[in-house]
Write a structure and sequence with these properties.
With 153 residues, this protein is α+β, with helices and mostly antiparallel strands. The protein has helices at residues 22-29, 80-91, 101-114, 120-127, 137-152; strands at 2-7, 10-15, 48-51, 54-57, 70-72. It folds into two domains: 2-72, Beta-grasp domain (Ubiquitin-like (UB roll)); 80-152, Orthogonal Bundle (DNA polymerase, domain 1), CATH 1.10.150. Helix 2 (80-91) packs across helix 3 and helix 2 (80-91) packs across helix 5.
Length: 153
């Protein structure tokens, strides 16, 4: 079946079963490999993308369910929150191995859009579904606070 998908601001037509997870279409069909496969059951956050601006786990979204929606991956995330998060991530040297970081960044961007000055509890709650095997959680939390400061300045 041909499905029309708005990904990163461009319309793509893909041949896929409507039940195919969005993650596989993004990675295998459209070759945007910044979105990672981690667990396949929405528990690790490595596959986080934005659908109509909201962070979601692409491994659990059927491509047939989002026709007409706007999907953004790490390759095209932009805006004030995204720029602040990217800057904070670099300035605080958050990344260790980097595997989970695209999902962490996508979730952090959405977090700051919803909570411009988040507390530690809000950060821990919202980011709790994003696993980091290298345990950079302290640096991630600090970077989110720093990104909030950048946005406030």
């Amino acid at each position: 079946m041909t499905i029309s998908l708005n990904l990163n601001g461009k319309t793509h037509s893909v041949e896929a079963d409507p039940d195919t997870p969005l993650l596989w279409v993004i990675r295998d069909e459209l070759k945007f490999t910044g979105t990672k496969y981690g667990c396949g059951i929405a528990q690790c956050g490595a596959c986080t993308v934005h659908i109509d601006g909201a962070a979601v786990r692409s491994c659990q979204v059927a491509v047939g369910d989002i026709e007409g929606a706007s999907v953004t991956t790490i390759e095209a995330v932009s805006g004030p929150e995204a720029e602040a998060v990217k800057q904070a991530w670099q300035e605080l040297d958050v990344v260790q191995c980097g595997f989970c970081q695209s999902g962490q960044i996508m979730q952090a961007v959405d977090l700051l859009a919803q909570h411009p000055t988040p507390s530690d509890d809000v950060i821990d709650t919202v980011m709790g579904g994003n696993a980091c095997r290298c345990a950079t959680y302290t640096r991630i939390r600090a970077a989110i606070h720093h990104a909030a400061d950048i946005l406030e300045a």
